[in-house]
Amino acid sequence: MHRPSILRTLMCLVVLGSTASTLAAPPGPVDWVNPLIGTASGKIGYGGTMPFVTPPFGMTDWTPQTRQNKISVVSYNYDDKTISGFIGTHQPAIWMGDYGYVTLMPEIGDLKTTPDERKLPFTHADEIAHPDFYSVRMDAGGGKQIRSEMTATERCSYMRFTFPANTPSRILIEASRTGHAGSVHVDAANHEITGYNPDRMDAHLGPAALKNFKGYFVVQFRQAFQKANTYGMDDAQASHARGAYAGFAPSTGKQVIELRVGTSFISIEQARENLKKEIPEWNFEAVRQALRDKWQAKLDRIGLQGASDEERGTVYTAAYHALLYPRIFSEYGRYYSAFDDTVHQGESYTAYSIWDTFRAENSLLTLLAPERVDGMITALLQNYREGGWMPKWPNPGYTNIMIGTHADSLVAEAIRKGFHGFDRDLAWKAVYKDAMTPPDGDTTRRWADREPHTPYEARGGLTYYKELGYIPTDKTAEASSRTLEDSYDDWCVAQVAKALGKEKDYQFFLHRSLNDRHLYNPADGLMRGKTSDGKWAAADAGWTEGTAWVYTWAPLHDEAGILELMGGDAAYNAKLDQHFAGGHNVHSNEPSHHYGYLYDFSGEPWKTQAKVREIALAEYAGQPVGLDGDDDCGQMSAWYLFTAFGIYPVNPASGDYMIGSPMFSRMSLRLANGKQFTVIADHNSSANVYIQSATLNGKPLTKPVIRYEDIMAGSTLHFVMGPEPSHWAANWRAQAIQ
């Protein structure tokens, strides 16, 4: 039995005692979450994460702001020494921009409106970060400190600022930055400041102007203002930031200013209504307790034994990160659509990062948050209906980032796993259009990565793909990667057709899904792009964030076919050995995520077992430097969580989970259907990484794969581990598509 450590005891004391918030709930998995994991750069890498205070899938995330966020820069970095605000952000990942954000900052002394003027020093010793609560003491100068505290709901935040005695205090609200004509209004009689921010940082990446887009906010104060005013509003050119401030008279003792912030993408009235529904009373502890309960209910579904304190923190933080996205984008039955710039009835989500998350994150959500899946697929179909296509990475509209139409995979996976709460006929129309309709100007555009002000890209180069069976490198950017990823998407479209009884379409797309094989070059045993005249392109031509080594095994549906192309098991394994030995496996980027599991397909599953353990140890840690690469809306974290269980969805839309090496003696997942999936690993340790034998529900398991149905049935997967490789499951082979 894992006994509570001194570290855990101290963590619980911090959570339950020193935050000035009395919580009745006992310690639980939420206390192991460390939102600072991935916020620092160092030996492992940089995860680009932020210490968000928000519920699972919250619409607005709240975080301290140590730098001005923009595309390629997020609001918080652990290495920074000052805080310039507390921001309600919608930035989902470091490579994406923010939109409709609002920033608040406590001040004393003179009014300071710029980030450099208003920033205050802090230390991590004075910082507490949990999913339900953030607190920090900042040095305000002259021996004075300001303490800031935050908790949150789906669309709102409750903040509490403690100022030193005998000191006039002020709360600054920045509505918009330089160059953006935001608006702000002060209603002193009602202790309220309202406004909006029209900024969409990545607006240049999509085709839509979205003239009606605004991020609205309502800030309500518990205390009356002594003085309040706006700033920057008389500047018609928006050459300075716009905002407002509320000042308060000094107190003989420490002064506590409380406020609550509502956000909306519909209207100021809706932001106020969101506040009324989500934070109806002035009770910080009650709001925090409700948020803690939400996280506890989700995280408590994961059981864990045999982990160190750091490993336990890594597991539960991975689950926290994976449960942040996609974010809810509707507000009590209505949502603003960034695809037709109007408000609709219904439920909506955004921030999918589909090129990253289709691999494992969305598969994890079918197990850990199945109640959300129908709504998430419906949101993609609404995007299709309103904008003409399902998006690649809505933020909140089209951004034309990355390649492929991997929403096809999400739809196929949901259908494969029996989700019925979305329009399947509409889903077929959406995936069929992805597969058959080239984007506007397909043969006159290169579709360069993040090319600004283009039509929606969909499958760039599809015209050539349909004619030639591949996308030529001399016609379309990233053509080699596109060909391989489009082949997988074709396989997904085929599965949708099959499920809907469209046999002719099924056969057509299944056959076309073998287009990946057109790029296999037997001369070097790797995939290689081709030019429009059918000749081999340069080895480095046409790849997306990688090389031929990174993409040769990219067709997730056709690993058995690739094995045959390479000449059988020995050649396939030798090539994989070269891949890893040559340093080509770049786990910080998603195309490499399934590679450690590929030896399962070729008769050497013991190499998979060693490799995935090696990757997990090297690329993850329970520290601020704990993620090697941008978490990309939970994909990095989902890889770790699956790997900890000992399984991974190499082809997510298939419903199959390849077996790796379970990392702990026992893990369990309490399912929404009331059953429990359990993985037991006898004799497990850092040395005993190899599976000696396995059973599923007490019966011998001789293949390195289980199915979605096995998990949902509440099965027990039982391994015996050892220090030396065995030939367990070495005789299994997948069937190649013919």
TrEMBL record:
Chain segments annotated as coiled-coil in the UniProt record: none
Keyword NAD tagged: no
Single GO cellular component term: cytosol
Pfam families: Glyco_hydro_92, Glyco_hydro_92N
GO BP, sorted A to Z: carbohydrate metabolic process; glycoprotein catabolic process
Domain Glycosyl hydrolase family: 270-723
Superkingdom as given in the UniProt entry: Bacteria
Signal sequence residues: 1-24
Limits of the Glycosyl hydrolase family 92 N-terminal domain: 32-264
Keyword Lipid metabolism included in the entry's annotation: no
Top enzyme class: hydrolase
A GO MF label: hydrolase activity, acting on glycosyl bonds
Keywords: Glycosidase, Hydrolase, Signal
Enzyme Commission numbers on file: 3.2.1.-
Protein known as: GH92 family glycosyl hydrolase
Organism: Edaphobacter paludis
Phylogenetic classification of the source organism: Bacteria, Pseudomonadati, Acidobacteriota, Terriglobia, Terriglobales
